[in-house]
């Protein structure tokens, strides 16, 4: 279990589950001259507890558990994320009807309103969270000793740093540093052999497909934001051979905006 695989969207899911838990102990409806009990009194509310609150708890648990399961694992033909999304939307729908179908002589109370807002947030993140860049970032940033540079950006210039200027012999003519992935040239215009590739860790800003090395058009995995992957080789200036946490290797064609570890 790696907590660094959680995104900010997962943080919203956890917060919504906490709010839903608090709302379950508040008055669900109120009546003139007094309040009705919380939703845990099933003799009064019947299906409100399982249809809104328990369904929301299960949905949040499935959405978070999916982050710690191998990619592609299915239960009953659906992934945990798909199950969690379906239950979250159903809980929000039931919560909406709990607002509309208020019993005669009763008014809405805090438990009913907060319960609907929590399930609405849960369903919103489940459906569209992966498409919102603000929610796709890592919940807990990876600590790094140096500031991460975007892939292809200008790195530092210290001795030994990739792309940095190396010391020149006394009286030698300094050579310009080639662009990342380029071939350095000597003073006569002849090319030097390309430097050996050094593996590095990286993270993607948004979900991106990883294709098989044999050129198959079907992705073998999806790289998720907030997870670190290992670049084991490079093909051209903008294509990497990446390795997932479970050992699968493939081609990442879109390297724009990735963060190096």
UniProtKB/TrEMBL annotation:
Residue ranges with Low complexity bias: 164-174
Residue ranges of the region described as Disordered: 143-189
Keywords annotated in UniProt: Membrane, Transmembrane, Transmembrane helix
Membrane spanning stretches: 12-32, 44-65, 77-96, 108-129
Biased composition (Gly residues): 153-163
Name under which the protein is recorded: Membrane protein
Species, as recorded: Streptomyces katrae
């Amino acid at each position: 279990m790696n907590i660094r695989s959680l995104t900010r969207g997962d943080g919203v899911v956890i917060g919504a589950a906490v709010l839903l838990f608090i709302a379950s102990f508040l008055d669900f409806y109120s009546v003139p001259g007094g309040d009705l009990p919380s939703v845990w009194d099933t003799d009064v509310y019947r299906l409100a507890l399982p249809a809104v609150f328990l369904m929301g708890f299960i949905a949040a648990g499935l959405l978070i558990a999916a982050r710690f399961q191998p990619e592609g694992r299915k239960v009953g033909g659906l992934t945990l994320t798909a199950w969690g999304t379906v239950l979250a939307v159903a809980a929000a729908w039931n919560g909406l009807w709990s607002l509309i179908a208020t019993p005669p002589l009763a008014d809405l109370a805090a438990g009913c309103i907060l319960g609907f807002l929590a399930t609405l947030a849960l369903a919103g993140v489940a459906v569209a969270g992966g498409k919102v860049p603000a929610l796709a970032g890592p919940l807990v940033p990876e600590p790094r000793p140096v500031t991460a540079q975007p892939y292809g950006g200008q790195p530092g210039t210290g001795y030994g740093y990739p792309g940095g200027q190396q010391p020149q012999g006394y009286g030698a003519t300094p050579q310009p540093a080639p662009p990342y992935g380029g071939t350095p040239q000597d003073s006569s215009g002849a090319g030097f052999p390309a430097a050996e590739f050094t593996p590095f860790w990286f993270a993607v800003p948004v979900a991106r497909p990883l294709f098989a090395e044999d050129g198959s058009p079907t992705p073998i995995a999806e790289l998720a934001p907030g997870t670190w992957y290992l670049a084991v080789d490079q093909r051209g200036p903008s294509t990497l051979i990446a390795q997932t946490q479970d050992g699968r290797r493939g081609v990442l064609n879109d390297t724009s905006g990735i963060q190096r570890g």
